[in-house]
Amino acid sequence: MVQLIDYSTNTVAQALRSFWEPQKLGENSLAQTRIVSKLMRASGSLDTAENRGSALAVLIERFIGDGIRERGPDILDWQLLHDRVLEGKPVKAVSSRFGVSGRSLARYYMRACATLARAFMELEANETDDVRTEETGRDDTRWANVATLDIDAAFVQEWSDYYDKRSSGSYDQVEESAIRAWLSKVGEPKYLNKEYFVRLGRWKTKRQTPRYEENDEDEVEEKTRAAYLASDKLVKLNTLRGAKGGLRGVGVAVAATILHYLQPDEFAIFDYHVRNTLNMAGHWSREIDDDSDEAWLDYLGVMHQLSGDLGVSLRTLDKALFAFDKYGSRGDDKAS
Fold this sequence. Notes:
The structure is a single chain. This protein has 336 residues and is mainly alpha-helical. It has 17 helices and no strands. The chain has helices at 11-23, 30-42, 49-64, 75-86, 92-95, 102-123, 141-147, 153-167, 171-184, 194-204, 209-213, 217-229, 233-240, 252-262, 272-280, 293-310, 314-326. Helix 3 crosses helix 4 (75-86). The protein is globular, with a radius of gyration of 22 Å.
């Protein structure tokens, strides 16, 4: 019978818990990184599977909530989760032990790894990036590279290409091409008619389709044209939002998507998956599900900064960030 390890007694786990609450640290906090670095130095770093599993456990608990300790996962579950990601296998098979979906668990795991990796880099600044476990001799380079996510030109090229390859011939790809082709024939000022408004809304958020259908033709054309012509970003956004007197069924995400299609060089699609990847790379400090006006403005700033620095379009950047979180952070094997 396998002897289960109680990670609550592990030195790394105890120290992490003792530091976390009093400091009220955020996921991307530099102070947090430094504290974890000091912690690992004092505790022998992540040189054993027990330490590594325990540290991941504590970090992921903070993202999921303390209640996860009542759901049954033990140190072997955390190590199995880590191993499955390294081996390129989906984590869905172990997610039931954590009380969350496989996709959510993968995101929590990546955020925890990113925190640990930033701390580990500070601690071992002069060491090689090639992390190898003493127990198994396993080359953990893949974990180190993903966890220390760097959004550079190569990353964007790889993952935007993967997005295109994966979506080729799909509903998403066909609809996007059709909507863009129709808009390319619309004169100035740009607008959407009801047919393409409903198709665009469904492309972004299908569940609101009945609400999109409630808008009449003239209203759709009037509101989308007014949004295109407005000069202020928030005025443009709120002209479209149903809660602000705009189009029924349209929230911030769909309004931002409409603006992207109308003015693709100015506005990025506002997406949860993209924000999650930005968070992993340290470019997003807000809550992942923050869709406030202020969050949207911050998001535009981040996306414009990155796209400008990398010399890529907002849509190409969006594809890469979306694909990495939806497919890469689940541990999917791209070669399969």
